[in-house]
Amino acid sequence: MTTAALADVANLAAVQARSSTAAPQPTPALSTNAWVAAQLEQMATLLDAQGANPYRAGAYRRAAGTVAELKQDLRGVFEREGSAGLDALPAIGSSIASAIAEMLVSGRWNRLERLCGEAEPEALFRTVPGVGPRLARRLHEALGVHSLEALEVAAFDGRLARVPRLGERRAAAIRAALSQLLNRRRAPRRTPPATLGANEPPVDWVLDVDREYRAAAAADKLPKIAPRRFNPEAKAWLPVLHTTRGDWHFTALYSNTARAHELGHVRDWVVVYVEDGNHDEHQYTVVTPAGGPLAGRRTVRGREAECSAWYRRQ
């Protein structure tokens, strides 16, 4: 990457990392290429800051360099050739190509937003089914919230229902739609079930990452992030672990979902995101069942039979 291009991307990424609002969208003053490069650079910066494997950060940084120096418009490449055209660019690869396609189609990047990022409040609120421009403006003005996650908190603590001319019934509908929308946004791309088994890490590795995460979090040895959901004071309380097993890269965090909060399981449920060497991502939740054959044992949801077999071998 040239010095000028590197400086532009680094400066923009630094502004985004410090900002509590969304990464800026492409504008006449900010080309699509520069915007996408900044997202990739910001991911690399976050991974570095959180102690992830440097090769992961390096992959995103190299991709950012490719996009920043690209002489043709990235959106044009995608419109003409699809994801295959992005994949063919130097230092991109299939997974980063998919991430770029997601940015170009939706204006967002789910994986990056897991760690940070919001959009303009009224535009965000209009993405909730049943919320139009007028209601979006009224919610923003009445509640003073700036993200879907903050709106979700207001829905659960009763403030949403007290917005003038809204009422309990409509507030309940918005709360349900919000939970669905936020859960869907955070769901990673998954390999189809018929072929997933061949691409999964061993279940004992997932359990070992869960063990490592909970021990390090209890000892206060991990960096913390400020999640958007259920965190109205924007405190950095959620520990995050990046670690590796073989060729797999793992990211672990406590579950910060509505269901985990409702049941009081935030610090029992651990969400483990896994990337293989191609950066394809899978997600697991590790819990402690209260009953059944695995009662009291850490268990990977969806892989209970493997967990039972592994515990028997111990």
Descriptive terms for the model:
314 residues; 6-stranded antiparallel β-sheet; 6 strands; flat; DNA polymerase, domain 1; alpha+beta
Q: What would you note in describing this structure?
A:
The protein has helices spanning 3-18, 32-49, 54-69, 74-87, 93-106, 110-113, 121-125, 133-143, 148-157, 168-186, 193-196, 203-218, 258-263, 304-313, and strands at 224-225, 238-245, 248-254, 270-275, 281-287, 299-300. The protein is α+β, with helices and mostly antiparallel strands. The chain has a six-stranded antiparallel sheet with strand order 1-2-3-4-5-6, with helices on one face. A hairpin with a 2-residue loop joins β2 and β3 (248-254). α2 (32-49) packs antiparallel against α3 (54-69), α4 packs antiparallel against α5 (93-106) and α9 crosses α10 (168-186). The longest helix is centred in the middle third of the chain and has 19 residues, at 168-186. It is flat.
Largest sheet: 6 strands, antiparallel
Sequence of strands across the biggest β-sheet:
1-2-3-4-5-6
Tell me the fraction of residues in β-strands, as a range. Answer: 5-15%
User: Which residues sit in consecutive blocks of at least 5 with pLDDT less than 50?
Assistant: 1-24, 188-197
Question: Can you describe this structure in just a few lines?
Answer:
The protein is of the alpha+beta class and 314 residues long.
Topology of helices and strands:
Blueprint: H1 3-18, H2 32-49, H3 54-69, H4 74-87, H5 93-106, H6 110-113, H7 121-125, H8 133-143, H9 148-157, H10 168-186, H11 193-196, H12 203-218, E1 224-225, E2 238-245, E3 248-254, H13 258-263, E4 270-275, E5 281-287, E6 299-300, H14 304-313
Helix pairs in contact: 1-2, 2-3, 4-5, 9-10
